[in-house]
Write a structure and sequence with these properties.
The complex is a heterodimer. By secondary structure, chain A is mostly beta strands. Chain A is built from no helices and 11 strands. In chain A, β7 and β8 form a beta hairpin. The chains are: A mainly beta, B mainly beta.
């Protein structure tokens, strides 16, 4: 969807290396989210942000950190990548925390070897 | 914590047949949303239901929210190949919690 972009789209990295995924929005939405999608698990929330420098953990936050220094950017960092973090990562934005539909980015396919 | 269960996990239908996916929550929801994800794509917001017993339609798609606001369904009449994809429900509990997604139902349609 227009207004939200993720980078990179694909990445292969080695176990133990740090990795940062970027989500950029032009909608000026307050809320931003990082999800991971794995077969049989649907979409699981990693971290979310409700404003600049305001972030909180989701259900699968271990091994991940986030930062939001500007309204438009939400970064997800895998501090030391493991094979279990091989997944498709989606960023989403919304005007409200759950009363509005989410707009998702196109996703980042991350492979940890 | 809040859980949202969705069944079935997979559904294979012949084009023209109907399709239904069901969503059940362990807690009462303030609202429920539905998303569609095409193969290789990203989830796209379809609709939100808020009121107990609410029914909304979008062309061949009918969405229902249960009277107790703990379950929901999506029904597609006369499926087409363009309906192929995974359908997710997502619910938010009454305590103002985060949106929790079901595991999704993957629909395949045979022409």
């Amino acid at each position: 969807d227009a207004g939200i972009t993720q980078s990179p789209r694909h990445k292969v990295t080695e176990t133990g290396t740090p990795v940062t995924l970027r989500c950029h929005q032009t909608e000026n939405h307050r809320y931003m989210y990082w999800y991971r999608q794995d077969p049989g698990h649907g979409l699981r929330l990693i971290h979310y942000s409700y404003g600049v420098k305001d972030t909180d953990k989701g259900e699968v936050s271990d091994g991940y950190s986030v930062s939001r220094s500007k309204t438009e950017d939400f970064l997800l960092t895998l501090e030391s990548a493991t094979s279990s973090q091989t997944s498709v990562y989606f960023c989403a934005i919304s005007e409200g925390s759950g009363s509005y539909g989410y707009t998702f980015g196109s996703g980042t396919r991350l492979t940890v070897v | 914590g809040q859980q949202v269960m969705q069944i079935p996990q997979y559904q294979h239908v012949q084009e023209g047949e109907d399709f239904t996916t069901y969503c059940n929550s362990s807690t009462t929801l303030s609202n429920i949303q539905w998303y569609k994800q095409r193969p290789g794509g990203h989830p796209v917001f379809l609709i939100q239901l808020v009121k107990s017993g609410e029914v909304k339609k979008q062309k061949r798609l009918t969405f229902q929210f249960g009277e107790a606001k703990k379950n929901s369904s999506l029904h597609i009449t006369a499926t087409q190949t363009t309906d192929v994809g995974t359908y997710f429900c997502a619910g938010r509990d009454n305590q103002g919690g985060k949106l929790i997604f079901g595991q999704g139902t993957e629909l395949s349609v045979k022409p």
